[in-house]
Design a protein that fits this description.
With 91 residues, this protein is α+β, with helices and mostly antiparallel strands. The chain has 2 domains: 40 residues; 48 residues, Irregular (HU Protein, Chain A), CATH 4.10.520. Helices cover 43% and strands 30% of the residues. The strands form 2 sheets. It has a 3-stranded antiparallel sheet with strand order 1-2-5. The protein has a two-stranded antiparallel sheet with strand order 3-4. Strand 3 and strand 4 form a beta hairpin. The longest helix is centred in the first third of the chain and has 20 residues. The protein is elongated, with a radius of gyration of 19 Å. The chain starts with a helix and ends with a helix.
């Protein structure tokens, strides 16, 4: 499913026009990104939780040349599905 498909689904369910549905979807994504940027954990009951994981700096290697490369520390988004979502998918 693409973002456009999601906008269409919101439009059908809420009976909003496509432009308003697009604003709803964009606002949702912006809120998730804003929460994660500030270091907050976002939990949606029955769906799952989003959080940031810290990756330590490490030594990697270039697969083409084999030379060692320093990989800096970074923050990566992580999604953990809820038990309810897992159960719905595995019916």
């Amino acid at each position: 499913m693409t973002k456009a498909d999601l906008v269409d689904a919101v439009s059908r369910v809420t009976e909003l026009n496509r432009k308003d549905s697009e604003i709803v979807v964009e606002s949702l994504f912006e809120s998730i990104v804003k929460a994660l940027k500030s270091g907050d954990k976002l939990e949606v009951r029955g769906f799952g939780s989003f959080r940031i994981r810290e990756r330590r700096a490490r030594q990697g290697r270039n697969p083409k040349t084999g030379e060692k490369v320093n990989v800096p520390e970074k923050r990566v988004p992580y999604f953990k599905p809820s038990k309810e979502l897992k159960d719905l998918i595995n019916l």
